[in-house]
Amino acid sequence: MSHLFELQGLGLSFGAHAALQDIHLRVTRGERLALIGANGCGKSSLLRVMHGLLPPTSGALRRDLSLRQAMLFQRPHMLRTQAWRHVALGLWLSGQPWGVARERAWQALARVGLQGVAQQPAQTLSGGQQQRLALARAWALEPEVLFLDEPTASLDPHAKREVESLVQDFAQGTNPDRPVTLIFSSHNLGQVKRLATRVVYLEGGRILADLPTESFFQGPLERTHPQAHLFVKGETV
Questions:
Q1: 20 to 30 A from 55, CA-CA: which of 23, 29, 42, 158?
Q2: Inter-axis angle of helices 127-140 and 98-111, to 10 degrees?
Q3: pTM for the full model?
Q4: Which residues make Cβ contacts (< 8 Å) with residue 1, sequence separation at least 6?
């Protein structure tokens, strides 16, 4: 199988602080990869490096630059414009004619159940609505790889369920032969169990465990990966 991403000995430093150290990771099309670990372990940094937002300071990163990618943040930035324009502008900036972008934006809003607030300023929407709007913008771009950085961390339980359901649906893609590759960080282990096919545990900027989801949660983690076991049990923060 060809790899969409291949990281070899990758490192990322901010001055004297090493955010990532000696990262070796391969990601294949259609995988749903969850990054877990305590705050400051390097999850967000790894997402940003893989997406191309941050250049690594050492090692090698190989990725297909032709891939269509989209990224959702924990608190998405909302433009000072109507919700439908917020989506349409992203499409227009990607090269689509304005008429096509506008039509696609309305389809995307309907897809996430926001057609009723399409004319409202994006910044006035609730937290859950804003995250769904960010998902609509990503879905409209038809990404092959979707990055999510704690996409439901700041939402109430109802909004969490709505967004998670949409993410799960989007990951199926529109073509069964080319499923969307999902790479996300989360502190919600239940969410990881529901969404991920593979779990990577980071600590101190290093990968200390990389296992299929079932093996991570059902296998002998205490014996094979004791640090990850302590995190899952809640004994590290």
A1: 29
A2: 130
A3: 0.91
A4: 28, 29
